[in-house]
TrEMBL record:
Keyword Flavoprotein: yes
Species classification: Bacteria, Pseudomonadati, Pseudomonadota, Gammaproteobacteria, Pseudomonadales
The Acyl-CoA dehydrogenase/oxidase C-terminal domain, residue ranges: 282-453
Pfam families tied to this protein: Acyl-CoA_dh_1 (PF00441), Acyl-CoA_dh_C (PF12806), Acyl-CoA_dh_M (PF02770), Acyl-CoA_dh_N (PF02771)
Protein's organism: Marinobacter nauticus
Protein name, UniProt field: 3-methylmercaptopropionyl-CoA dehydrogenase
Amino acid sequence: MPVYKAPLRDMKFLLNDVFDYPGHYQTLASGENATPDIVDAILTECGRFCEEVLSPIYQTGDEEGCRLENGEVTTPKGYKEAYDQYVMGGWQGLSAPEEYGGQGLPASMGLFKQEMMGTANWSFSMYPGLSLGAMNTIFLHGSEDQKQTYLVPLTEGRWGGTMCLTEPQCGTDLGQVKTKAEPQADGSYKLTGTKIFISSGDHDLTENIVHIVLARLPDAPKGTRGISLFIVPKFLPAADGSVGERNGVNCGSLEKKMGIKASATCVMNFDGATGYLIGPENEGLECMFTFMNTARIGTAIQGVGPAELSYQWALDYAKERRSMRALSGKKEPDQVADSLIHHADVRRMLLTQKAIAEGGRAMLYYAARLADHMVEAHTVGDDEKAEKYDDKLGFLTPILKGFLTELGNEAANLGVQVFGGHGYIREHGMEQIVRDTRIATLYEGTTGIQALDLLGRKVLLMTQGGAVREFTLKIANFARKHLTNKQLRPMAIELLKLTAQWNLLTVRVMLAARKDRDVVSAAAHDFLMYSGYVTMAYMWLRQSAVATDKLENGGDESDAFYQTKLATAEFYYERLLPRAQAHATSMLSPTRNLMQVEPDNMAFTG
């Protein structure tokens, strides 16, 4: 059975050399204890936990799945034991405030942890991952009493958490939420309704589960302006903070899914369940989405993770599996045939996976720095700074979430292709990566929703193209610095051309949309993918600039490491980046070719 290996060398290259996280942490109050030695120790120990504990139960968890019996959900064999080790290691509170039992480290440390966990075993990582969403919501919007009651056991990992948004009649359009919340004399509320697709809705890993639920008060306005947010625990807390009586919330069924089968995705029924208002009345969406940008960064990990995992396993297989002779002549004359890795087409697939994984990781780590500043600003109550960094993240997160998950799916499928027929067989694990990864382009908003958010809201409506101008100026300034370097010049020139084109495309789409509103929806997907390819190109130039410097002046890694970085960047620019031009052409195509066929004429059947 294949085993995950934490890519610590690449992670440390990005953290220490490309993005200067040691210097970054010195600017944060929460970074005081995030010294290079501490960060290195945390990454190493987390990598060990993922390799030795989470990776071995990845495939077995998929085979067994979750079970619902007598109203209780049981996770696969080994999950409870793994979770207990996770709690004992203090991993849940890594980036949580110290006053509530956490370690108070920067938010980015939690993302690095989540990347390794999600790559080793995405299904497992979703349980503590959903708890983080509940923790963030309570920390920002809960009363001090709610924080003491719920945040402390959540931070310790004794309790789990969920985010209950979706209902049978609505997914992204939360204005259709119907769950009701009736006020009670004691200040609590009785919630009645059904939520679907609730990850970690019920399980046996923790002694209690804290549901963060969207619902409507009796006199609430219609639409999104009439939604409030509530804390609804599975077991009501006792006066001493322990678990009390069972609440009126239960798992009605488990979804039968394509993948992530070891993650309990539940239909949750609220039958007069006792809940407690969190945040102001009718402002539930604002409260729920305060940390949505950081949540989307977390989801973007499921683009990088499968690319990394599938690449690791495909690379090992390509080195061992022998088939035919290389077209340029025998590479292993003592063997019956040459290894797959000597075939150019196999190299194409492997390098595509590598470029996606390492380029995507750089995009995540770039955004994580912004998230650190935003979270710290929220913590100290600096609303102006928090809004500034939230806006920067708001532009990047749909690109990260939409683009990286689409490429993660591509990379996972390429892994199956490298294995050939064996990739289609379950025992090798490659088809599981494909199944598990497919959901990533759907939850937290489909790629189409991310694209509309990027182009329609962040670029056109909110900034009139300003978000693109600001980001491309940063890219262009970086590229100009490297025009005199012979090795980096071709990449720098190409990137400068792309920044100019990105602005031109934005203006052209904006002008076309004034005459035809459908232009925004028609162009959005191509605009997002174009934005993703250019952003990744920026990340590869940044890595190349560091690699070039280290080759000249020495670094912590071998020359081969830095040379491979440069070679991968060259591959990306010459083989993958040209895709951006196809998206540029497509996004300017008129809406007529999409909208002229009448719905009744879309299919003609007997």
